[in-house]
Amino acid sequence: MTTNQTDAAADVDPRRWLALVVIAVAQLMVVLDASIVNIALPSAQHALGISDANRQWVITAYALAFGGLLLLGGRIADFIGRKRGFIIGLIGFGVASAIGGLAQTQGELFGARALQGAFAALMAPAALSLITVTFSEPRERAKAFGVYGGISGGGAALGLILGGVLTEYASWRWTLLVNTPIAIATAVAGAILVRESRAEGKPKYDIPGVVTSTLGLVALVYGFTRANENGWSAASTISLLSAAVILLVSFVLIERNTSEPLLPPRVFTERNRAGAFLVSLLLGLALFGMFLFLVYYMQGTLHYSAVKSGLAFLPFSVGVVAGAAVASTLLPRFGPRPLMVGGTAAAALGMILFTQITVHGSYASTVLPAQIVMSIGMGLAFVALSSTALVGVADHDAGVASALVNTTQQVGGSLGTALLNTIAATATATYISAHGAGQTAEGLVHGYTVAFTWGLGALILASVLSLVLVTKQRPQAEVDGAETAFEHAEELVLV
């Protein structure tokens, strides 16, 4: 054995597989939380008297905080120590979950969800970095990422069922409270089993960039909410949307002129990568909106119980994982462009089927076929765009490019949920006004189909952008990132 081999063997963490268990449990908790909350949303809305205009904040508060702070969270974890960031994220996530589970007002619940997202933005990149530094041998690293990705896919399906069971037989509050003991126990185990690592150099944080981007996105979402309540021409709506534009333009200018930008503009200069991020944004918009209105359609119109609703979503989880598995096989042979175009087109076809739901429709004839087609398309597209986002990126930008796939999905989801919720509520109110109060059920379904139609527009645009912007085929030699792309595709079911 050579000296280098001896040193490498001595540096291997003997408890690395136990550390992986700890990291996997943390990932499972985040996955469970996301899917559990979707199923519990109608019950939480009724219990706390949340208006239809504000219900989207249960989703968008988390998604905005998570997506908006993810890049900063990864940088903080690198410099304060990934283990320390991981444990702080776990404890904070557990505390925020307890606050949400005990919330007595909608404001408390929204705040708790935002706090969850902020701590998840610290925990998630720390967890991925810990896997990378803990498993230095390529085969072991591949197995570790396989376990992590499997948790993402299977955990979401488990969350749908568990969310239904807890909501129906205990309370919607337990869909949040269940995180607290798991987070505390995992933090203790992490303190014992996980090895610390940190980046070298002096830490630099782009605080102005974080503030302007986050406040800009919040103002945009809140502007959509006010448009729902007061109309698009109201002074409050115009003021918020104007503030959002000013803040987001300021963010772009800050990133172009700061020495350590949160989001380096150079990451977007390559057209294929820019196309991948835009498509990810649009997929998040359509996907989050679809889940929101489908939950309400199944529980409110089809009168499904929470448990039955959770089970009814399982084909979507299976379809995404199946599509991702097929894409990982086809990607080296055909490259990303055909998969992105075909996947987004298939997702659009599924959304067309969703626009056909009716008050007296059935799950088997409309919802199930739509779920199958759309989910397989999403899996195909997301593997391809994740790979495209990472191909050819410089080493010092690899972390940012990888995180941006999740960030764009979360930001697109939060903006899409707020915008589509406003569009649906407006369409419902207009329909009931025209047809009378006796048509409330029909009005609600009409609102859902209008929102699905806008989601369809987003998917059609994603397909066009894939065709126009993605021009390069994936080189055969570039195998790095294939497992990461598969893992990101499985994480689509987190919503």
- End-to-end Cα distance, whole Å, is 49 Å
Q: State the CATH topology of the largest domain.
A: Growth Hormone, Chain: A
Q: State the fourth-level CATH superfamily of the largest domain.
A: MFS general substrate transporter like domains
Q: pLDDT average, as an integer?
A: 85
Strand content: under 5%
**DSSP, total strands:** 0
Secondary-structure-derived class? mainly alpha
Order of helices and strands: HHHHHHHHHHHHHHHHHH
The number of distinct helices, counting runs of at least 4 residues, comes to 18
Reported CATH architecture of the largest domain: Up-down Bundle
Broad CATH class of the largest domain: Mainly Alpha
Architecture overview:
- The structure is a single chain.
- The chain is built from 18 helices and no strands.
- With 495 residues, it is mainly α.
- It has 3 domains: 15-194, MFS general substrate transporter like domains (Growth Hormone, Chain: A); 207-261; 265-495, Growth Hormone, Chain: A, CATH 1.20.1250.
Features:
495 residues; mainly alpha; Growth Hormone, Chain: A; 3 domains; globular
Task: Report a brief summary of the structure.
By secondary structure, the protein is an all-alpha fold. The chain is 80% helix and 0% strand. The chain is built from 18 helices and no strands.
